[in-house]
Amino acid sequence: MSTSVVAPDAQESKRRSSVDLSQLTPLLGLALVALLAAIFAPKFFQADNLGNLTRQAGILAVVAAGQTLVLLVAGIDLSVGAVITLSMVLIAKICKTDESKILMALIVALIVALIAGSANAFLVVVRRVPPFVATLATAVLIGGVQTAYTQGVPSGSIPKALTRLGSGNLHGIPVPSIVGLLVIAATAFVLRYTYIGRWIYASGGNPEAARVSGVPVSRVVAGCFIASSLFALAGGILLGGYAGYVDSYLGAGYDLDSIAAAVIGGTSFAGGKGGVWRTLVGSLIITAALNMIVLAGASEWLQLFVKGFVVILAVAIQTARWNWRRRR
Amino acid sequence: MNDLKTKIIKSFSNGLAVWIIIALLTITASLTSKDFATLGNVNNYLGQTPFLIMGTCGMFLAVIAGQIDLSIAALAKITSVLVSGIGNGDENKFWLAVLLCYAIGIGVGLFNSFLIVKLKVPAFVATLGTYSILEGLVLAYTNRGIGSIPGNVIVKFYDGVGPFPVSFIVVIVILALLGLWLKKSRLALRLFAVGGDPEVARRSGVASGPVITASMVLCSLFAVSAGIIQVCRAGVGTPTTGNGLELAAITAVVLGGVSLMGGRGRLVGAIGGAILITLIDNSLNMIGVSQYSQGLLRGAVIVAAIAVFVSKRQQST
Amino acid sequence: MSSRSSSSANHPVGAEEGSSSPLLSTRGVSKSFSGVPALIDVDFDLYPGRVHALLGQNGAGKSTLISILSGVLQADSGEIVLSGESRNFSTPREALDAGIVAVYQELSLLPHMTVSENLFLGIEPGKLSVLDRKSMSDQSTEMLRSLGAEGIDPNALVGTLSLTSQQIVEIAKALIRNAKVLILDEPSAVLGDDELELLYNLIAKLKATGIAIVYITHRLDEVMQIADEVTIMRDGRKVITTDRANLDTESMIEALVGRKIATKSAPKWINENRPVSGEPILKVSNLILPGMKGKAMDFDLFPGEILGLVGMTGSGRSRLLRTLAGLAFPTSGQVSIDGKPLRIKNPRTSIAAGIVLVPEDRKRMGLVLDQPIGSNIVLSIVTRLSRITWIPDSVVKKLSNDMLQRLSVKSTGPSQIVRFLSGGNQQKVVIGRCLTTKPRLLLLDEPLRGVDIGAKSEIVEIVSEIARNGTAVIVVSSEIEDILALTDRLFVMRDGEMTQELTGDHANEAEVLRATVGVTHE
């Protein structure tokens, strides 16, 4: 009844213009951050700082790639920060006396991440708990496990092998940046060219239609939550290696940062819309903005403040744009 | 078997089962720990509950309206540092700071509902953003304990009738008023209607915007009250006050049989949920579980409660 | 309520038609959607204290007409006259305030609130913001008593009431808002016979208070029982308005179908008496559908055969399709496809076995609207395209282009977002997705709904071609004309069982209508 009879090409050209614009916005954001940096924090452009920045952006991109997968199936993962902290605390403590135990440490961390991801998947898929409640609860449980395990005081040290990974360079390029790029590229490839990617977009865009079309929607959603935990572990390993120490706050902030990176890139909370390349740009924007704040002399508080605003603004813009497109 | 299961689920959804668990747990705790039933601990326990009860009342109102508020912990936190920091031992300034914080609460509630109603941002995203903004503001103000609460205010809080601290009595009065409001006011009726089905409410002539705004503002005011109660108990405002309040309140609401889909649930159940959670904390303490393991057990209880009580049944019917 | 009593004072109960002036009228109302007329120059009069039955097949314009009366839609031309005054309602609220209330099948009640809370939602009595619960409860009791429903406790939760009681509450909700005109949208589709009896009694009471009632139904026996006047619509026009006494079942069917259509030739396949050959593709034995009581079903379907299912909403026709497609699970029975037993588990296993469904609501269940055409078309076969390596863009593009061409979809190509296609082209994309699975059995649920005329005939042609190539097809449609155009064999379904097979000369519109509404032919 509501179908319009506008000539197809007219519709198409209208659509194109709005898509082009939407893909430009993240890059515009990056340009804006650079401009602000040029004014308020000239140090921003020093090679040292840019190196640090791309290193951090690479770490964030790994975590945010997982978050993007979850957002694509209309979920959200508020437990990535907790997974990062717990896995690194475990690795540090296991390798405390003997760095050769690193393999065992990594396996333990992998198992823990798998359990965390499966718990999220179970709550969301089987028990139908709203994802933000489910993952917030597992985050608290993971935090509890960590406190109980360390008796409140994380100890041990990050093994050298990981430090080389997190702080090292390859041909002058920070290793985490390379890893981040590879992870993003691999995820983008899966999303774009494999049946799994097509299942993910369909499950998030219209779960019911996906099911009717033969997509195993529950398994796809569960898989995304598990993947997110594994990506968080990978990001955690890089982060631990970069920081060189562990404390109870290592992963704090990564929940919101990864969400911000994804939504700035244009991935929608409603599911089925978005992609990881844009998340990479989002990671750069967030890292650059936070870095600039530090350079400009303001401390943690402004970072939190800005993150909050950015998430709200990005989602508000998305919502407005989709409502507008739908109304036409 | 299935029948029994249905009955149990039903008794949870009308908010009574949680009170039975509270009774059972209290009896068990009094039998296993001789310290539990002492006047000192009861007084201490009753002093602990108001904080979560206030947070739960706020969350209850937001959830009934079909929303959620993840910013209550940060709002309680900012209240606690401001009241302590501005008051700094001076009673006049203390009350001024309390007023200021309620004004901030109204502002935060309006901001949240602006995002939800006007910008159509989902409540959990909007309030997650607000949470981050408020946390930033707290840190901008202080990153450690700051100021103090006037001595005679604290004394008033610890004083009490028998085992009942004044703060507890104040909370009972607030609860009675809230219960009355839920039963008697036009707005409360519309709150349940909008949360239950905004489209049906609209067709009956009730616009959802103002109702959601009212619920989010009231929720923020309860969060401010939680912050005030906690800082008066602690005597000094710290930026860690209230960590985890939002999830504890959500869990309390869920334990009390309130549907996270909105429009369904009873205050008495949600309050029961809050009391149960505090009781578990207190019992863990009394039976000598180490402080470091308490977080683990608490987390396990929360995850289990959510896994069990946010049932498909609850959401579909 | 005061206005209601005054209106009954103006129009004495039992006034003869003509002697009293209409309460609500439409004059020359027309409405079209995207250039397709849905309502053409309709005059319609409602008198106080009378029940006016509104009849018509799907798409005849009944729902458009009541939507205009209740302010949900606005007429393109013509006027609405309420108590002698020209009015045009731009929102449901305005119509509501003027006393026009529509009660839809899908009730607008809140199940977790009490009866009295529901009745007074939005118009709660009380000073300042304090509710007067006593007055709410008293007025509710009084209202329910006046409707002869003393049994309903005003403090009971609506969700705990029976469907009839809920319907009564919904009517009470309308009356408390001073309804003068009550529009009942096909209550018999959701109520059982005993419950309907109660509703009829209630309607008789309402008539006595001077309320005008519009009663929409498909059931002719019902019309004979309760209506004072009858209006029959067809293809957006009013065919006839007359006193019930002037009509019988046969004349109503005639008016519903239209003379010229009734004599139109029966479907071509049936006349050709096409021979079926080979082994059956689908064998169904002893099948009882979930939640249905009827007799077990047994039938076979041969290659190239197109089976049509007709019946009223709730007769189980869609449920049969959903069950075969793996979306619902049968209470008992066996299904085999090409001789192999099928375990009904989920859509994936059904698709793998060769059964694929074009669902009823394509926007909700058929398409991922914000994805490109190509992604939608290959969605069901992505694991066949490649499980281990990647799926090249070129393969997707070629598959989609072939399908777009085969189905002559008007689009800018595989990369166009499905949301921006017309209804007919969207439907073709769903069919395209189903065809890529190379089905042995294609299930079509309302394939022509919301599709423009041009696309309709194309889709009919596509389905015939699919059948010619040896696929078995089952079609469900509530538009008899459509199903006659599509099918070889017709089964009539009622209450979850197949009651009748129509063949040859009996497969015509009037006969189908008779069979679905349950009128036996003498």
TrEMBL record, chain A:
Record bears the keyword Transport: yes
Predominant localisation class: membrane
CDD domains: TM_PBP1_transp_AraH_like
GO molecular function annotation: transmembrane transporter activity
Protein's membrane topology: Multi-pass membrane protein
Coiled coil: none
Listed InterPro entries: ABC_transp_permease (IPR001851)
Record keywords: Cell inner membrane, Cell membrane, Membrane, Transmembrane, Transmembrane helix, Transport
Compartments it resides in: Cell membrane
GO terms under cellular component: plasma membrane
Transmembrane segments: 24-45, 57-90, 102-125, 132-150, 170-191, 220-243, 249-269, 276-298, 304-324
PANTHER family assigned to the protein according to its UniProt record, in alphabetical order: ABC TRANSPORTER PERMEASE PROTEIN YPHD-RELATED-RELATED (PTHR32196), AUTOINDUCER 2 IMPORT SYSTEM PERMEASE PROTEIN LSRD (PTHR32196:SF71)
UniProt protein name: Unannotated protein
Automatic annotation (TrEMBL), chain B:
Keyword Cell membrane among UniProt keywords: yes
Subcellular location: Cell membrane
Regions crossing the membrane: 12-33, 45-63, 94-116, 162-182, 211-231, 243-260, 267-289, 295-311
GO MF annotations in UniProt: transmembrane transporter activity
Swiss-Prot/TrEMBL keywords: Cell inner membrane, Cell membrane, Membrane, Transmembrane, Transmembrane helix, Transport
A GO term from the CC aspect: plasma membrane
UniProt topology in membrane: Multi-pass membrane protein
Name of the protein: Unannotated protein
Species this chain originates from: freshwater metagenome
